[in-house]
Amino acid sequence: MKEISIRFAGAACRIVIGGRLRDLGRSLARIFPGGPRCLIVTHPRLKTLYGRSIERSVRRSGMRPAFALIPEGETAKNLSAARDLYRKCLAEKLDRSSVILAFGGGVVGDTAGFVAATYLRGLPLVQVPTTLLAMVDSSIGGKTGVDLPQAKNFIGAFHQPKLVWIDPALLASLPEREIRNGLAEVIKYGVIADRDLFGILERSGPLQAAGRRALREKMIARCAAVKARVVSRDERETRGLREILNFGHTWGHAIETFTRYRAYSHGEAVALGMRAAGAMALHLGLWTRTDQDRLTGLLRRAGLPLRLKDGLPRKRMAEILSRDKKNRSGLLRFVLPRRLGKVIVRTVPASVALKGLEAIQP
Ligand SMILES: NC(=O)c1ccc[n+]([C@@H]2O[C@H](COP(=O)([O-])OP(=O)(O)OC[C@H]3O[C@@H](n4cnc5c(N)ncnc54)[C@H](O)[C@@H]3O)[C@@H](O)[C@H]2O)c1
Ligand SMILES: [Zn+2]
After folding, report:
1. Do 152 and 184 have their domain in common?
2. Whose CA is nearest to atom 12 of ligand 1?
3. Atom of ligand 1 nearest to the CA of 182
4. Is residue 174 within 6 Å of ligand 1 at its C-beta?
5. Could you read off the pLDDT tens digit of each residue along the chain, which spans 362 residues?
6. How far apart are CA 21 and CA 170, in angstroms?
7. Is 139 in the pocket of ligand 1 (CB under 6 A)?
8. Alpha-carbon distance 350 to 353, whole Å?
């Protein structure tokens, strides 16, 4: 078990990696004495799998649990799901001392987190992530929110969880496609900040690392540590430091936008985006062919795509890139790898960005 504490201006967050679900109650009791109400937000499927265990653990803390269920999938991460949750908060008579506990992947975490940030102007939040992506990424850092029909993550708030409880044993029921999805982010952490993690993944194989108990915990802890370090220095994304977490995401988002989120999972799009960014860095002489080959090799072993299924039009893709939030005065802004464990942020003309696209065209 490993613990990380992050101090933010107005809040403190404890991240426990390797804690078992049945021990969660003890930690909750310490943070939330007095037996407050606790609304556990989750999906029906996860309630069936783990409902009894989580309920028992929460009860053991002295808290009074109730469940609120939201449908699965990105399409459920919207204002209507948030409104249903507000109604449930009201029906369960939650007050300012009550706690919202998000038990699920990023969809549950973002939606429940947003409700916790806004109901009664803010209730304490606990994140218990159940997907690899949520364990290494979305449960840490305090970004919460829902989608608009036209735009992903456009409504949101920063709201730090008091506790992030990561029990890697929950991944036993996660489908392999979702494991691969999370592995794209794990590989991302290796490239942006943790060369040793990259080496561990190469030695054991990424899917094997995610499957073996001790290794899995170590891998998640290293990723969580990078995310925690980055967000603690730039909580509200005002200092530009958080930008490095977007490695692979500029092309990744453009691919997701063009294919309307249908052709690739997020992790697959990020994998393609990392290869594209690597190719750009190679073109600029920032990154070596050997490192690009190592990145490609690891993505391949994680079962992530190396090339697009169908070619994408250069002109349209350049247009989509030009709308990226990171851009400055007409130049495109990219996170580019320098060497394994180190990235830099560079503005580049569209012609350089398109070198990245060339490298992943079918
Ligand atoms: N807040 C942030 O900083 C941040 C960062 C990255 C991503 N996100 C968001 O996260 C979301 C994606 O999250 P995700 O990849 O976790 O997807 P998800 O939450 O949709 O979960 C994927 C699927 O796995 C199922 N599932 C979850 N845990 C399971 C388990 N243990 N066993 C069996 N099935 C399980 C879910 O029911 C769901 O169908 C996106 O909406 C994205 O915008 C947020
Ligand atoms: Zn991502």
Report:
1. no
2. 106
3. 15
4. yes
5. 999 999 988 789 999 999 999 999 999 999 999 999 999 999 999 999 999 999 999 999 999 999 999 999 999 999 999 999 999 999 999 999 999 999 999 999 999 999 999 999 999 999 999 999 999 999 999 999 999 988 889 999 999 999 999 999 999 999 999 999 999 999 999 999 999 999 999 999 999 999 999 999 999 999 999 999 999 999 888 888 899 999 999 999 999 999 999 999 999 999 999 999 999 999 999 999 999 999 999 999 999 999 999 999 999 999 999 887 777 777 899 999 999 999 999 999 999 999 999 999 99
6. 9
7. no
8. 5
Q: Please tell me the number of the ligand nearest to residue 113's CA.
A: 1
Residue 331 is classified by DSSP as: B
Domain that holds residue 255: 177-360
Q: Which ligand 1 atom sits nearest the alpha carbon of residue 74?
A: 41
What is the chain's alpha carbon radius of gyration, rounded to the nearest angstrom?
Answer: 20
CATH number at residue 132: 3.40.50.1970
Enter the pTM of the model.
Answer: 0.97
Q: What angle do CA 176, 178, 180 make, to 5 degrees?
A: 70
| Pairing mode of beta strands 125-129, 163-166 | parallel
Q: How many Å separate Cα 18 from the centre of its chain? A: 18
Ligand 1 pocket test: pick from 138, 177, 181 the residue with the most ligand atoms within 8 Å of its Cβ: 138
User: Do 117 and 265 belong together in one domain?
Assistant: no
Do 196 and 92 share a structural domain?
A: no
Active site residue 121: yes
Buried b (16+ CB within 10 A) or exposed e, 256-291: bbbeeeeebbbbbbbbbbbbbbbbbbbbeebbbeeb
- Ligand 1 lined by 227 (C-beta under 6 Å): no
What distance in Å separates the CA atoms of residue 163 and residue 298, rounded to the nearest whole number? 32
How distant is the alpha carbon of residue 73 from its chain centre? 15
CB distance 326 to 333 below 8 Å: yes
> Would you call 163 helix, strand, or coil by DSSP?
strand
Q: Which of 278, 353, 281, 272 is nearest to 310 (CA)?
A: 272
